[in-house]
Fold this protein.
Amino acid sequence: MVFPTFEFAVFFVAVLALSWALMPRPGVWKPFILGASGLFYAAASWRWLLLLAAVVLVNQACAVLVHRHRADERRRRQIITLAVALDLGLLGLYKYYGFFVEELNGVLDVVGLGFPLPLLSLALPVGISFFIFQAISYVVDVARGLVTPARTIDLAIYLSFFPHLVAGPIVRAREFLPQLETPRDPRNVAVGTGVVLVAIGLVKKVAIADYLAREVVDPVFGVPQLYASPDVALAAYAYTAQIYCDFSGYTDIAIGLALLMGFVFPQNFASPYRATSFRDFWRRWHITLSRFLRDFLYIPLGGNRGGRARTIRNLMLTMGLGGLWHGAAWTFVLWGGLHGAGLAAEHGLGERRVRRVPAWLRWLVVFHLVVLGWILFRSPDLDVAGTFLAQLAEPGSATLWSAPVLVAIVTVIGLQLLPPRPLEALRLRAENARPGALGVGLAAVILLVAATVPGQGVPPFIYFQF
Amino acid sequence: MRVDARRFRARDALVVVGIAAVLLALFGGRGIRDEAKEMEPGLTRSTLTAIGAPTGWLADRLPFADVTDALGDALSPEDDLGEAAPVASSGPAAGADTTAPVDPAAFDPASIGATPTEPPELRKVLVTGDSMAMPLDVEITRRLADGGDVRGERDPHIGTGISKSDLLDWVPLAARQTRDRRPGAVVVFIGANEGFPLPTARGRTVECCGAEWAAQFATRARQMMNTYRQGGRARVYWLTLPLPRDAERRRIAQVVNAALRVAAEAYRAHVRLLDMERVFTPARRFRGTLSISGRETVVREADGIHLNDTGAKLAADLVLARMARDFAVLR
């Protein structure tokens, strides 16, 4: 079930009303919201629901055991290792098995060891990368003593809560579980903020991201050899705007829906194209993933302890694996590698030397390296990425340039460069409007956005495939 | 995240959503009804139908929906190609006492020992269809671009179907594609979303998948083939469906393929039916892998319906090889 559809709208209206009606009675509300989230997920495939249930049960068992043996360091480590291995094993099976088997079979063929490994064609369960990461964060946070084991039903709600189930944000257990301890206060709901976020998310996704994909990005990335440098460059900037609008649009809707239901999710984006360094970029882009990678990979690897070489190694490993998390392809590994190299270079140069470079020049360099990264990220394989980059030097005419496309790209990137205060003040005014005005505004936005949808409907969010 | 805005009561959330829902029902009620029609049977469709029927009824009687339609006309990226017109069937009702003459186009010249007529110079190939045509469209277009002499154009319409015509009717779409693009060859791969009821010339609708439905489907497909072949000035390469994993979908795909075989008979001189059913599902059994160059390789997506990149490459090989037999420029 995709957010910008009638079926989801019907589902959400019913769930919102019943959720607030049942909220005072947690004994009824919890099974209800779990059932609603299950229904939401089962719309994709009921089999995946069984998988999600298995993840809940296994991680709950591990969390309870690790809490029980919290005084026994060796046993505690064994249980965490088991839980993380099971979680990552499951993720690996669905997400990376085919990729690694094909690569390995290729290598075995080259060295003359024709012993093909069995091929499996497994459908990637929607949202698995997100709920597996949340499950890991739960067990590890229990092991670290940051949270106590939750009731199984609370853990099930935490992992399956439909606003963040399929594409995040990656909410930490210690952020979400306390919100289940007491019923949400029906006199203290951020309705205005929620509605405005949903409206902004819909505009970003349907009116901007999908439009840019249709008009520029998909044609050029499909067959880059048909286009010359003006169109290829335009497609690179268009994808830069598209992926931001698509993913942050999803996040805005997810956070907005949760707020309407009384729950608060962490922020996931903060004007990422404003960044003047890679470090800054990762504090602004997919914030919940970068803090997960920091807390559960970079720091356990040693972080910046142990000298410059070790820090650079840890950065490259973290970003390389972060890239691979997005999908089983060398393009994602290279994308992660590019960001790892950027972070490592900044670390190597030292903050004082970096700061000597004028801010506008730092922004220009970082922004264009980020755009280069997006070319790798969007390309289906390295061949296409290579052709795309080669076509950037191919002279020719601009066939895809149009005023709406340019306005969309400049607006998306330009708004992030403006001082944030006036925009925030404007948003706050909208958020503080009366309920009647908010309802009319929401309907107007939905009708406007729906008018731009082509006959084939709204394509899924980019991050659904991760 | 930090929330600085004013706090409301939960009741206000319901008021906001309620007002939006009422306005959407008034202005967009028809959309809910139309979307329900396009869905496969199940709980979701039943729910949307139950809501869409009264909201659509209300929207039909009030002027508000016209505003939405005007907005759609102004902002929609596509022309209105919805709601299929009933197609005259070639069955008994179409003319019990007359027999339609056989068109010479029904004969492949090779089958009667005649010299094949040389098609005009190939400049443009259109690859179209539903999601089945992806990533085949990219593969063919890329290879043509590498060749340099022929331009490939892609026009896939995800989620559509020949029997799913409320939002997009393929018969007029084929006419528009032909008129706007003038392709010398058209590659069609469609059928992931078939099995919906089809209207007949008598004003009835027939449910999938008996002979009457197959006849209606074949009639529509034949109209498209006739449009794409442009009176013989173009060649059509229509791919049959590799059978899906799911049993219900497999039954529909078999009927679709049978209908396509019947439809293509009328234009054997210009329409090439490429048998993907036999290539990807030999002995009519689903398989996710095929032996390619002696190595077992995954050729289907995990959904058990679509071809993956490798499968699309194999299909593109077959399409381009067949095209090269018709057009010297591709040899």
Remarks:
- The mean pLDDT of chain A is 89.
- DSSP finds 21 helices and no strands in chain A.
